[in-house]
Amino acid sequence: MPTPDTTDPALLSIDGAIATITLNRPAAFNAIDLPIAKKLEQFGAEVEGNDNIRVLVIEGAGRAFCAGGDLQTIGAAVEANDVNSVVGELLKHYHAFIATLRRMPKLVLASVHGSAAGAGLSLAFVADLCIAAEDARFTPAYAKIGVSPDGGGTVGLAASVGPRRALQIFLAEDSFSAAQAYDWGLVAKVVPALELKAATREFAFRLAQNAPAGLAATKALIHRAPTTPIQAQLDAERDAIIDCMHTDEFRIAVKKFTSKSK
Description:
Blueprint: E1 10-15, E2 18-23, H1 34-48, E3 55-60, H2 71-79, H3 83-103, E4 107-112, E5 115-117, H4 119-126, E6 129-133, E7 137-139, H5 153-161, H6 163-172, E8 176-177, H7 178-183, E9 189-191, H8 196-208, H9 212-224, H10 230-244, H11 248-261
Parallel strand pairs: 2-3, 3-4, 4-6, 5-7, 6-9
Antiparallel strand pairs: 1-2, 7-8
Helix pairs in contact: 1-3, 2-3, 4-5, 5-6, 9-10
C-alpha cells in the first residue's frame, strides 16, 4: 500500500471518474484523531461536490487500513475529565464525513488491508462496497473497552447482515478474517495482498462505467429501502427510473439495444 512522504493526515487524488482518499497516519496505523477527521470532512465535501467523480476509493497508507479512534487522544481526554468536549468535537467532524459518504451520489469503495479495527471496521462497512486483501483482519474492538460503536458502525454493518449478526459481531467476536467477512456478505471481493491495489482499481473502474444518474438513484433507493414503507419505496422507484430515462446515457443505450434487435 502507498506510504506517501507528506505529513498530511489524509490525501485526496482524482483520476478521471475515480477519486481516492488515503488515510495517511501510518505510524499510528491510521487511527482517527481530530486533524484527520477535519481533513476527511473537507475531502468528503470536495468529492461530493465534484460532478465528474463517480466512485470514491478509501484506503490506508502503511501496514493497516485503520486502527479505529485514536486512543492516545481519547485516553488523554479521560484523564482530563474532558470526554464530552474532546470526543464530541472529534465525532462532529468525523461523523459529518461518514454522513457525506452515505449521502453522496457516488459509490464508495473501501479497500482494506491489514487491520480494520473499531472505527476502521465501521468505515470499511459503512462504505457502499468493500474489497479486502486476504490478510485483512476485522476487529470490532468496542466491546473490549466497554463502549458502543461509532463511525456508522451500526448503520452499514447492520444493514448488510441484519440485527442478530450485527449484535454477534459487535458483542461476541474478537476479530474475523476477510474470508469470514466475505461469507457474511460484508466484503465483495477477497484478493491476495499484493494484488489489492490493482484489483481495487479494476473494481472501481468497473463501478465507474455506470451512468451517473442510474448509479446515484440505485444507491439512494437501496439505502432508503429498509426504513421506507413499500408504497413510498415503489413511488420512489417510479420517479427515479423515469428521471434516469430522460438522460442521454439511457437514450443511447436504448437506441443501441433496439437497433440490434431489428
